[in-house]
Write the structure tokens for this entry.
Amino acid sequence: MITIKKLCTGFAFVILVAGACNDNNQSPCVSEQDQSAVFQNIADNLIIPGYEDLNARLTTLHTAAHAFTGDPTTLQLEALRNAWKAAYLSWQRVAQYEFGPAEERQLRAFLNAFPIETAAVESRLNSGNFVFDNAETFDKGFPALDYLLYGAGATDADILARYSTDPLAGNYKGYLTAVAAQMQQLVSETLQAWTGGFRQAFIANTGTAAGASLSLLINSLNEHYELIKRDKLGIPVGAVTLGFPNPDKAEAFYAGISAELALEALRASESLYLGRGLDGANGEGLDDYLQQVAAKQQGQDLHQLIVDQFEAAIGALAAVPDPLSETIATDKALVELAYVEVSEQVRLLKTNLPSQTCIAITYIDNPSDSD
Amino acid sequence: MNHPLVHRLLYLPLPIAPLITFRILFGGLMMIGALRFMQKGWVERLYGEPVFFFKYYGFEWVKTLDVPGMYAVYSLIALSAAGIMLGFAYRWSVLLFFISFSYAELTDATNYLNHYYLVILLAFLLFFIPANRRFSIDTRLRPSLLLTHVPAWTIHLLQFQVGIVYFFAGFAKLNPDWLFRAMPLAVWLPEKAGIPVIGPLLALPAAAFVFSWFGAIYDLTIPFGLSIKKTRIWAYGAVVVFHVLTKMLFNIGLFPFIMIFNTLIFFPASTHHRRLKYLGYHPDEPVTKEPTTYNLQPTTILLALYIVIQVLTPLRFLCYPGNVLWTEEGYRFAWRVMLVEKNGYAIFYVSDAATGRRTEVINSRFLTPFQEKQMAIQPDFILQYAHFLARHYREREGFQQPVVTVDSYVALNGRPGEQFITPGVNLADERDGLGTKKWVLR
């Protein structure tokens, strides 16, 4: 069996050489960056403060909703609208963390399924049934409040009339407070789950496996980024609908703050990538992890490409004035440009970032075996 | 052609026992496989959810049935597999199995798996192999069918088929990514760091290299190890260890069992006799052989033809320029298993000069997430989908001459993404074919 011995010797030699080469030439998936440090920063400076902020603002919103229904005046309406807008902006900063506690509660579906289905809203108003237990309906969360606070009448006086003289005034009030209560409840539960144990598990869940924290972050960043691209911009401007714009399908169409919300969401994506906390301090983020794998694309630094593209996208979107629906009518090219700049980033985030960090895109699951 | 060696390899009467084992295990496993497929709800997910199905070149005409129809197909697969296992109406069972299984695979090329292709080939071969001629319901009903010995080619052909899977799987591993970058195992193994005991070892950078090189050497040598008497038992031990390990590490379904069972065909009849005895098999009945008076020449020619096809098919990638892992031209039907970690992105644009309309396509309107993922990395799928879009926009959206272009990037084996399809090419005008796809950047 001399040949077998020779084979084994050759095999061992090759392994040694391969191992030796490996020391100089880093294995593609190894990053020097401590994963837990990244997760800790993201949990403690982005996610948990993000939910705390949202929870506080939703509590304010809930209180304001009761104040308004008890006293439906212009002043109270204004206060409620302000509370709604502040909470909506706060939501944009955490909408992308749809895993763990948020995923269990289907937070995105219950808080921000848009565009609103006015027929469904009307039927709720008529029936007086304000139990929202189906994630698939488009009649709850922030979009419902957008309609109830801005879209229920042509003028503010008309809207106020809905809550005072309208025969359905009681149902309008009930709708408002039920939606506000549910949102606050869900976010409060999510926050409690994070502080109550998920934070620890999240920080400790290192590795590159599907379901590990790095995979959760990169996947949820991607998934939400594509929603920003498609739902907040692509569908309203008509880029994905044969060039026919659908301004009425924009987020917060009635309030007319769509561009502002989209910009906040885009900034949140950038913050997650950079590890930039709510306080603005740039801590350890996905960028630090990526830089440690020294990713280059066609001689260019992948990290720099992503940073530059975020800047370009944010710049282009910031140039789009609200209401988005009007800008689409008057200066569509401006919105299309923002859409293109936002889209450019998808390639970097969806193809290069996962590939370089050895993370599989798992929000697309394999329904069968593989080989 | 009448060389004594050829005669010994093909026509020497050999005890039928290895075929009996093969038939029982193959039929049984396929039956369980079809039941498992239905039980997991994959019929709904793979045939109910999609509205568009990808096809193999030349099989575009195959229509997918609705969910109840596909349940009927999978039930047929399970039933006919049971028929194979029991040796009941064997020829019909094999034929029915071959047709229903092949049909199920042809309905959506998204779900291509090498081991499904192997199953189809084995079913094809079993049709010509009299594996029911003993220890079967058929022989119970018609004792005249009973055979104790079969011509050697029936066993050697199955050995060849199983052996060639390993050999080409090993051959495909002889590429720089696999050998010198340990890709894609360098991505996949660290994912498994959570497995008890061996997990931490898998995360070591050297582990991917050890697995890659061991895997290549294993695949290339195992057919020979199984063929030689002296090494057979060790080789089989390696088969079991190797496949159990891959089963633990990867989501590869029935493949490990298929190979652990199939490789038993390399063992001599005596080994099978010892095991089959427990099932009530009596090896020492009076010998009955099929009279070999028929003309052997056509059989020899057909066997040679099959072997040549099986050797050439995996090698056809050599006819295409560029890296087969990137272009995927000549990739399928070549036993390329676990060779790539690919990440793709494909955004389609449809425009119409006549109406001046232009739109980006939301892929999720037409494809399931899994189909979209597979489409983005395979050029023939990209083309089929582009044709589908052209048709859709012509018939449903009033486009007169739809122009379909794609912005497509693929990241292969941990490299940064690169443009995959020539930007600006109107895919609606390109035809699929066996030739090189000029619009694939290479």
Q: What stands out?
A: Residues 11-26 of chain A have pLDDT under 50 and may be disordered. The longest helix of chain A spans residues 35-70. DSSP finds 15 helices and two strands in chain A. Chain A touches chain B through 52 residues (CB under 8 Å).
